[in-house]
Each structure stands twice: as structure tokens, then as C-alpha cells.
């Protein structure tokens, strides 16, 4: 454990890294930019922006330059980096990674968000062409307000860029129906590590298309994505029900995600909370409205230290008769085994529902905890091991909570995640997303950021020791061995793709997978 903390402190001590040797490493990059037709602006060393930080707040870096591209053509600046033996380029979406993934220490950071977002909707084909640096929140507003259409698959929080989530997967409560966001794009425009621009899809340059989706930014910079749309509903009935037993929670959640499309909810997630009056981690985290009351006397006496909440939502149109919505709902809820008396619901507008985390963001900003560190841990855990994971991790290591949501809900793998894409999953038909969305609260006093990191490590070690089949989502590994284990039998393919699309390992150095001038192993 101590060795881990030492490594953590050392890795983040940017001033302890070897002194730069060449002029460009010292920050004199200006000659490199001579004669380059860049429409945007370049801010050299010391770039006093956020480019050396991210949402996680535990990694720091010192980029040599921050490039604010004016248009997607400026992404070809990666060609510049290839003229030097050292330079790397990180496309930065909204910097909402938690382990420095969008950073480029002594490299170039390309701020994708400064390109004015283009969101061009084609109602005839129900698709939108969207720039890679556009925020999903802006995509939502443009599609719904302008056309009554909406993307099918979302993330919980929409202050993330299209290129940033497509580089990972993009999962939320719609994933069980439509797959992750990476399954809901039909075409990309990509600038590869050689600075070449390609349009790619399942039929045109398919290898690049499959590589880039879930590719952790390793194979190209996404400058445009074509996103599938569907008619947007007007309203959402948003429901939470509570379980005292994990087995019953899992049984109901799995039942609902395996029902045929159109015969289930439009959204399904779940979370674990502490069985106590803890204001952050406990009962109070369940009600959906301030006038709703969580009655602890409903909880069975035999309940353990944590409880489970299934969260579902049903879409409807303004013209749907209320009785029809009620009937659909009762049919879907029939047979579920949640605790009597612990059912909460509200009706909200569709956009309000999708922007629900923005309200939490505003509150967290007001409390000062949004800008504090977030040592988050995200895992995909096989269905086969999730009951043991509950016993070892939720009921034991995390029985006091994490200072924020602990998400846990099932996702279908086989039909919903195309294995030609770069994301890696546990084996089997179904796995669970587990997300520890930690916040550092000064009051009530929780763990410090360092203690949270140690606890994350303990959880990962427990998974390994217990032989659980799991993968890190939004992965972070500090060694080549760690990455090899992560990709497993897809490591060779991942390396071959790197050699083909970014042979000098210029792109996304913050992922720490390939150093500049790497050799396949
Ligand atoms: P960044 O952090 O800026 O970049 C992430 C990686 O992608 C970096 O390696 C970067 O170099 C690369 N990259 C960025 N833009 C491009 C591009 N245009 N082309 C190629 N590579 C690029 N994830 C989910 O799946 N579901 C959720 O519900 C969810 N909720 C979240 C809520 C919050 C509050 C936060 C902070 C994160 C959440 N995430 C969620 C995680 C999020 O999807 C990832 O952290 C994502 O990478 C962040 O997007 P970003 O635009 O900030 O990307």
C-alpha cells in the first residue's frame, strides 16, 4: 500500500521529473510552428489554463503548449509533432477524465472544445453530424429543441464531449437497449497520428472506425461523428425502488434488461447506499423530491449495512392519457420484489431528466466539492462474480459509502457491444457497471483523496485475489504489464492498430499505454 502511495506522489510531482534538454522541451516551440497554417491560437509554456489538470484532480502535468484550434483542420497539427522525436499531442475534450488521460506532459494539448461546435441534424435520416469537441448537452438542446429528435444512448452527465466519450464507450441507463454511445454512431472523421484525415464507417476504412471507437484516443482525433437519432419524448416518469437483498435487486434488474425492446423501461440504472441516516451516503440519497420522505421503519430488520436502489424511467408524450402511462407502469413494475413503502417517483420533462446531473453539479460547485479531487473508480464486473463482489466490496470495504453515488447495474454484452471495437469487457452475456463516484467532503468528514486512492487499490486487489472476471472502465494502468493484462487476448490487435494509425505514438500520451518511439512487445 505504502509503495502505491509513494508511486502516486512521485508520479504527480511534476517538478521532480528530469529537466528538459532540447529547446522544444524547454518550451521554445515557436520555430516548429513557423510556416504552419494554423487558424487557431497557440499559448506557449506556462499555459495558465486548465490544460495540466483534470476533473480527477490527482494528476498534474506541464504541457509545452496549448493549442486552441479554430476548426477541425487545425487538428492536423499532429504532423508538427512527428517532426520532433519527443513531442506528443493530447486531444482534450472537457478534461473530465480522472487520471490525467487528456494530458500531455511536455507535449501539445489540443483544446477540442474551442472549435465552434457544429451540430447538423438531418431529420430525413434521423442522424446528426456533430463535431468531436461538441458537448453532449449542446447536442441534446439542438436536436430536441430544433427537431424533436434525440440521440438514443447517453451518459448520465452531459458536460462531456462527443470525442471524449466515444474514445471510451459512453454508458448510461439506455445502454441495455441501444448499446453504449460507441454503438450509436455510423461514421467518423478522424485525424490519425500521421496527420492524415479519413472518413470512416463500417464500410469505409472499417479498421480505423472500429479502432477509434473505445480506442482511448490512441488511433486518431475524432473531429466529427455521425450520431443516430430517434423521436424525443416530452416527459419522463422517473422511479426509484429500494431492495434490502442484493439477490432480489439483481434478479429484478436482470429481468428488466433482458425483456424485449418496447416491453421494458426506457432507462435502467441502480445504486448502493448506506443503511443509515448519513446525510450524504444514506437513506436521504434516495427520494427524488424534497417533499418525499424515506421511512426507515419499512426496512426489514435483517437488512445489512447497505441497501440497493433500482432506478428506472418511462418515456411518454404530452398527449398520452395519464391512465395509459399508469397502466404501462404498473404492468412493468408488476412482480418486482422491492421493499413495500419505499417507492418514489416524479414526472419531469425529457431534457430536465437528461440534464439531472447538471443540477447536482451546480450544488456541488456551490458547496466547493466539484473542484476538489475525485478519485473515481469504474469497473465492469462479470454477472458471474457480482454477488461475491457485493459481499466483498459493497457490504465490507464500502459499507460507509464513498461520499457520492455508488452505481451498479447490469448491461448486456453479446449483442450490444461489437467486439471489433476497442473496448474490452468481461466474458459472458451480461456484466455490471460499478462506478464509485467519490467526492471529498470536508463535512461530514470522509476519507481524504489519498485514502480514497488506497481504497480503490484495495478493491482492485480484492477483485484480483478473488479471481473476479472484471475490467477497468475509463481504465488507468501505470505499467505496460497492466495494459497487457487489461487488453488480454486483444493486446496484439491493439498494438497492431497503434502501429498502423499512430506509429510514432504521438496521440493521447496521458493514457500511458505507449511511450514515444515504442516497440511492439
Ligand atoms: P477528456 O477527459 O478530455 O478526454 C478523455 C480521453 O479521450 C483522453 O485520452 C483524450 O485525449 C481523448 N479525447 C478527447 N477528445 C477526443 C477526440 N475528439 N478524439 C479522440 N480522442 C479524444 N462516462 C460514461 O460512460 N457514462 C457516464 O454516465 C459518465 N458520467 C460522468 C460524469 C461526470 C461528472 C464525469 C466527470 C465523468 C463521467 N463519465 C461518464 C466519464 C467520461 O465519459 C470520461 O471521463 C470522458 O473521457 C470525459 O469526456 P471529456 O470530453 O471530458 O474527455
Summed up, the helix count is 15
Name the hetero compounds present.
flavin-adenine dinucleotide
Give the structural class: alpha+beta
Average pLDDT number: 92
Question: How far apart are the first and last residues' alpha carbons, in Å?
Answer: 29 Å
Count of strand segments = 18
Strand arrangement within the widest β-sheet reads 14-11-13-12-16-17-15-18
Shape category: globular
**Which parts are unreliable, with pLDDT below 50 for 5 consecutive residues or more?**
1-19
Report on the biggest sheet. Answer: 8 strands, antiparallel
Strand fraction equals: 15-25%
Helix content: 25-40%
* Oligomerization: single chain
What Rg, in angstroms, do the CA atoms define?
23 Å
Cofactor: FAD
Catalytic activity: N(6)-dimethylallyladenine + A + H2O = 3-methyl-2-butenal + adenine + AH2
Protein name: cytokinin dehydrogenase
GO molecular function, one term: FAD binding
Detailed description of the structure:
The chain is 27% helix and 21% strand. The protein has 15 helices and 18 strands. The protein has helices spanning 2-12, 30-33, 78-82, 136-147, 162-166, 175-178, 206-212, 246-258, 322-333, 350-354, 356-367, 383-397, 449-465, 480-487, 491-501; strands at 41-44, 65-68, 89-92, 108-111, 119-122, 127-131, 149-151, 185-192, 197-201, 220-231, 235-243, 267-274, 306-316, 343-349, 377-382, 406-412, 430-436, 470-472. Strand 5 (119-122) and strand 6 form a beta hairpin. Helix 12 (383-397) packs across helix 13. The protein is globular and about 70 Å long. The relative contact order is 0.13. The protein binds flavin-adenine dinucleotide (FAD).
